[in-house]
């Protein structure tokens, strides 16, 4: 699931940079289980995505003082892999929207 989040985030960063006409955002991979999306030149303007040690969840933290939020990973009734939080099953794009929208669209 992290690889799917990363691929979608990479596409979102590329699209937003094209809309702005410059590279304002970066996707950085720390290792195989951690990546971040950041506003170029601003250390505090970034969102981190990390798989937990037991590989059952993804922890997202970062932008605008948000605390860490943990999403479990599991199968829905159709056998598709989904994120889980507070009894809700979420597609990867909804998770990204929750955590990246404020970062990508609050350009200074």
Describe this structure in words.
The protein is built from 2 helices and 7 strands, in the order H-E-E-E-E-E-E-E-H. It is α+β, with helices and mostly antiparallel strands and 108 residues long. A 7-stranded antiparallel beta sheet has the order 1-2-3-4-5-6-7, covered by helices on one side. The protein is globular and about 40 Å long. The model has no long low-confidence stretch (mean pLDDT 90).
What does the secondary structure layout of this molecule look like, with pairings?
Blueprint: H1 2-20, E1 25-31, E2 34-39, E3 46-51, E4 57-62, E5 66-75, E6 81-85, E7 88-90, H2 92-104
Antiparallel strand pairs: 1-2, 2-3, 3-4, 4-5, 5-6, 6-7
Helix pairs in contact: 1-2
Helix content: 25-40%
Give the N-terminus to C-terminus distance in angstroms: 31 Å
Broad shape:
globular
Cα gyration radius (Å): 14 Å
What amount of the residues lies in strands? 35-45%
